[in-house]
Every structure is written in structure tokens, then in C-alpha cells.
Design a protein that fits this description.
Strand 13 and strand 14 form a beta hairpin. Helices cover 33% and strands 21% of the residues. It is globular, with a radius of gyration of 21 Å. The protein has 13 helices and 16 strands. The strands form three sheets. A seven-stranded mixed β-sheet has the order 14-13-10-11-12-15-16. It is α/β, with parallel strands linked by helices. The chain has three domains: 115 residues, Rossmann fold; 67 residues, Dna Ligase, domain 1 (2-Layer Sandwich); 158 residues, ATP-grasp fold, B domain (D-amino Acid Aminotransferase, Chain A, domain 1), CATH 3.30.470. The relative contact order is 0.14. The structure holds adenosine-5'-triphosphate and magnesium ion. The site of magnesium ion has 2 residues, from strand 14.
Length: 406
């Protein structure tokens, strides 16, 4: 291995380890991570369930080293799992966090983690503060960024007062990293449209569950923007890539299923400035809502890790966020190049579920390139495994309906 800071190109002697927490399903961000590094000749080790055929069938996977970390396990045990991988492997290895929880663990326990596992030297508390929807409000206000009005409470009275104030619909979210994986009350971001749905949330709160509600910013014409990149030096403004989420699944609160790389200098500048002020280092993926009618701009989410759609953002030098992490953590020179605009990133199975709204050409007649999440001509097995699962579940539904009628 060579660690000369001026060396160019990836250090293919240093493998990567994709760390994941919980029970990830249909994780196209994991597949994209494996493919982008694999295509550079870097061996990629993953933590995955043996059942994840749509990931494990990729020809770019060098090995499955363990199942994903358990969100319930004490951190020492998770660190033990990571250190055992380092021990087995014996040499340096770049660590890529696949989700907020993994990013939080890597930061909070960096000093206990085997130094052969190469991670970003981020302030230990930052990933948790950024990925927690309530504490993110404090960070946003400290750096002069607008954040939607919200409440975190167990009091039905407070909840009612908040909703009276902002009006329905409101967004309910699981506020903290880890909680979302164990949170049966609000396991994912969802829209509360009616009084009956709100009553359900109030019941949850009355049982002592902290509920996070936020004003819903999605009025007609508002735009959802991504900012992504890799901050390599604390206090310095990183390069920020931008793109728009044009279709999501579920439509109003879900992941982007059609995303388009487009320039948005104002949001890029705000994000770069925020990262510098916060002192953040590492990969980031943050969501913003822009209302072009009045210029109002709100930060809504800051993921202290690469996003699942990170391949939306590529540059003229062949870079993306995961490749930039590998270069940086192996001490290689990074030629950032310029962001390639006009690319579309598509999640085929989810865009199907969105029907016409999931068709990329509805948004961009002539994309520079369409990056599919499952299909890749040089690595077809994951798409086949995915198609097999979808056909299987469609078949089971049809059989179930026929039985129900019979
Ligand atoms: N206050 C809001 N107003 C309008 N839409 C919102 C708001 N908050 C969230 N959304 C929508 O819901 C999506 C998911 O919300 P959010 O990003 O906060 O959740 P998350 O669980 O952290 O998602 P991710 O897995 O992408 O990190 C957003 O990308 C956005 O489309
Ligand atoms: Mg998030």
C-alpha cells in the first residue's frame, strides 16, 4: 500500500467495508457503493443478511463479512464486530457508513475502533446531532439556516396547540437515529392529514412516546433539493453537488425514485457554508425545500453519510461521494472535476409503483445519462434477483386474491 498524499488514482490495495445497521431491505445505495468501488478495482466487503440476493449477487462484492449491526446491541458489541473484521482482514480498510446509525457509531466510538479501519475524524457528537431531527433544529439555527416549525412532545395538549398553529397536514417523523429502527409508533416519516390520524398520534403520545411533528412545507410549486458531497477539512467549505428529487415513493414523504442532477448555486453555497460553520467532515447528504414563489429555503434533513441516491452526483473526473471518501481516507489526491448535470438517477421498482410520475422522461426529455439502481449492463444478476422477488410477490398477491374470491 502507498499513502503518498500526492499519489493519484485509487489505492486498490485498500479494500472497503460497507457497514450497515438494522435490517436493510432492497438497499440500492449499498449496491451502488459496491459497484462504484468495484469498478475501480477496489475489493468491497459488506455486512449483509444472507437473504439479500439483490445485493450479494453483484459481481463486485468481494465478500460478506457479517450480518448488519444490531440496533439493539450495546455499542461495545458492535465495535467488537467491526474490530473482529479488521483483525481477520489484517490491513487497512476504508469504512463506508450505509446509514445514520452506522455513521453515529463510527463517530462516537472512533477511539475504540481498530485504527486499521479508516474513518473520518469528525467530532464524536456531530453525526448524532445532525441526524436527530430535533437537535438538527438547533444546529440549523446556530448556522443561520431556516428549519421548519416542529414539536417534540408526549403531551397531547402541546400537540393539539402545535397543529392548531400550523394546520393539517403535518409530518410525523421518528426523531432520533436508532429509534426509527425500533419505533413501532412512527417507524418512518409520514403525513398526518386528518383529525383521525392526529388522534392516533395523540394516543401514541399519551402512552409516553415522544412524538415529533413538523409543519408540512410542500405547497404547490415547492421544490425538493439534495445537496451532497464529502467534507475533507473541518472549517473549510466543501464542494457541494446539487440535484432535485422530482418523484418520490411514497409520493409526499418518501425516497426519491426519480432524481435529476441540476445546478442550484444558492443552496450549494448555503450547504457549503453550513458544513464549514459546523466543522463537519465526512460524506453528507442533506435535503432542502425551496419555495420559488418567495425564495424561502428550509433545511429538512442532514444525513451524516452518503445518501442511497449518491450516484446522482458524479463529476467530470469520474468521482462520486463514495469514491471521494476512498481517495481521501487512503491519502490520495482528489481531482474534484466539475459536477455532471442532466443525469437522472432512477429506482426502477419504486418508480414503477409511481406509474406515470415515475417516468424520468416526464421531467427531462434528454438526460445525459440514466443511472438505474438495479439494472447495470456489466452486473446483471442483482436486477434479475430483484425482478424475481417482485414477480414472486406479485404472484403471491394474485394467488391470495384468487383464494379470497374462491
Ligand atoms: N417538513 C416537511 N415538509 C414537506 N416535506 C417534507 C418535510 N419533511 C420531510 N418531507 C419529505 O419527506 C421526505 C423524508 O423526510 P426526512 O428526510 O426528514 O426523513 P428521513 O427518514 O431522514 O429520510 P432519509 O431516509 O431520506 O434520510 C423528505 O425527503 C421530503 O420529501
Ligand atoms: Mg434522513
Amino acid at each position: 500500500m502507498s499513502l503518498a498524499p500526492s499519489a493519484t488514482g485509487p489505492d486498490v490495495d485498500v479494500p472497503a467495508l460497507l457497514v450497515r445497521t438494522g435490517r436493510p431491505a432492497w438497499d440500492y445505495g449499498a449496491l451502488a457503493t459496491v459497484r462504484t468501488l468495484g469498478r475501480w478495482g477496489i475489493p468491497v466487503l459488506v455486512m449483509a443478511e444472507p437473504s439479500e440476493r439483490e445485493l450479494l449477487r453483484s459481481k463486485y462484492i468481494a465478500g460478506r463479512v457479517a450480518v448488519p449491526l444490531s440496533p439493539e446491541a450495546p455499542p461495545e458489541r458492535s465495535v467488537g464486530v467491526l474490530n473482529a473484521v479488521a483483525e481477520t482482514f489484517g490491513g487497512p480498510c476504508v469504512v463506508i457508513a450505509g446509514d445514520d446509525e452506522s455513521a453515529v457509531l463510527l463517530a462516537e466510538h472512533r477511539t475504540d475502533i481498530d485504527p486499521r479501519l479508516l474513518t473520518f475524524d469528525v467530532a464524536a457528537d456531530l453525526p448524532r446531532r445532525l441526524s436527530d431531527k430535533a437537535s438538527l433544529a438547533g444546529v440549523a439555527s446556530a448556522v443561520g439556516v431556516e428549519y421548519p416549525r416542529h414539536i417534540v412532545s408526549t403531551s397531547t395538549q402541546d400537540i393539539r396547540r402545535f397543529v392548531d398553529d400550523v394546520g393539517l397536514p403535518v409530518i410525523a417523523k421518528s426523531p432520533e437515529p436508532y429509534a426509527r429502527l425500533a419505533d413501532s409508533a412512527v417507524p418512518f416519516t409520514r403525513l398526518i392529514r386528518t383529525g383521525a390520524e392526529l388522534a392516533g398520534i395523540e394516543r401514541v403520545a399519551a402512552h409516553g412516546h415522544r412524538v415529533f411533528l413538523q409543519e408540512f412545507l410542500a405547497r404547490d410549486g415547492v421544490q425538493f433539493w439534495y445537496t451532497a458531497g464529502v467534507a475533507t477539512r473541518a472549517g473549510e467549505e466543501p464542494v457541494v453537488w446539487t440535484g432535485r428529487k422530482v418523484a418520490a415513493h411514497p409520493a409526499e414523504t418518501g425516497v426519491g425514485v426519480v432524481n435529476v442532477a441540476l445546478p442550484q448555486k444558492q443552496i450549494a453555497a448555503r450547504m457549503a457554508n453550513a458544513c464549514a460553520q459546523i466543522g463537519y467532515v465526512g460524506p453528507f447528504d442533506a435535503d432542502w425545500v425551496l419555495d420559488p414563489s418567495n425564495g424561502a429555503l428550509h433545511l429538512i434533513d442532514f444525513n451524516p453519510r452518503r445518501g442511497a441516491q449518491f450516484r446522482l452526483f458524479t463529476t467530470t473526473s469520474g468521482l462520486d461521494g463514495v469514491r471521494a471518501c476512498h481517495l481521501h481516507l487512503t491519502g490520495r489526491h482528489i481531482d474534484w472535476g466539475e459536477q455532471v448535470f442532466g443525469r437522472v438517477q432512477l429506482v426502477e421498482n419504486l418508480s414503477l409503483a409511481q406509474g406515470g410520475r415515475g417516468r424520468p422522461r416526464r421531467y427531462l426529455r434528454d438526460p445525459v445519462a440514466v443511472e438505474r439502481s438495479w439494472w447495470a449492463a456489466d452486473d446483471i444478476s442483482p436486477a434479475l434477483a430483484m425482478a424475481g422477488q417482485m414477480l414472486g410477490s406479485a404472484g403471491r398477491k394474485i394467488l391470495g386474491t384468487a383464494k379470497g374470491r374462491g
